[in-house]
Every structure is written in structure tokens, then in C-alpha cells.
Design goal:
Oligomer: single chain
Largest sheet: none
Order of helices and strands: HHHHH
Mean pLDDT: 77
CATH topology of the domain at 37-92: Arc Repressor Mutant, subunit A
Number of strands: 0
CATH architecture of the domain at 37-92: Orthogonal Bundle
CATH class of the domain at 37-92: Mainly Alpha
Strand content: under 5%
């Protein structure tokens, strides 16, 4: 039986922390789930620097709804945080890199 880095047995919800050399493993799992257009919009917002509050305002959604969507998206992409989710999305071609010097605005 293996143990985690904290010396305890792995639990059901434990996700392995893969070093960058194992990137193709988590990338392959990203293809096994459906990333929706709304998920991609949220990734673009985050990559553009919008906060959760700004994303919620832009969508007419609650802050809690945006937080829940971000958590679900990170699980879909097996990402540790939103920065990691953006990196996965960029490397998988789910979103395009914003033009250099692009800024965001709320309408």
C-alpha cells in the first residue's frame, strides 16, 4: 500500500500532484471530459485578468455560481488552481492566448 506525501493512505478525493515531466498524463485526462463554451468563456475571463466578482457581473450570475463553475472547471482539467487551468486550456487549444497588451473592461 502506498502513502501520500503526508504519510497517510490516499483518500478517494486525493489527486496526485504530477511533476511537469508527467504533463501528457493529465492532458490525456482533460480530453475525457466535456469543456463547455461557458467554461471556455470563464477561462478567457480569468486569463484576461477578470476577478470572480467581475466575471459574475459580466454574466449576471452570483459570485457563488462563478466560484462553483471555476471549481468544476478545475476538476475537469485536473488543475490545482485557475492559473494551472489556464495553462492546460492554452496547451490543449481550448482558448487562445490574448493579444499582448490587451486589457479587459466591464460593460
Amino acid at each position: 500500500m502506498t502513502t501520500t506525501d503526508r504519510g497517510r493512505r490516499p483518500q478517494n478525493g486525493d489527486r496526485p500532484h504530477l511533476p511537469s515531466s508527467n504533463g501528457p498524463q493529465w492532458r490525456a485526462r482533460a480530453h475525457a471530459v466535456e469543456v463547455t463554451a461557458a467554461d471556455c468563456d470563464l477561462l478567457v475571463d480569468a486569463a484576461s485578468g477578470l476577478t470572480i466578482v467581475e466575471s459574475a457581473s459580466k454574466r449576471g450570475a452570483s459570485i457563488d455560481a462563478v466560484k462553483a463553475q471555476r471549481r468544476t472547471l478545475m476538476l475537469k482539467l485536473d488543475a490545482r488552481n485557475m492559473t494551472h487551468a489556464i495553462a492546460v486550456a492554452l496547451s490543449e487549444g481550448l482558448i487562445n492566448r490574448p493579444p499582448r497588451g490587451a486589457t479587459h473592461s466591464i460593460r
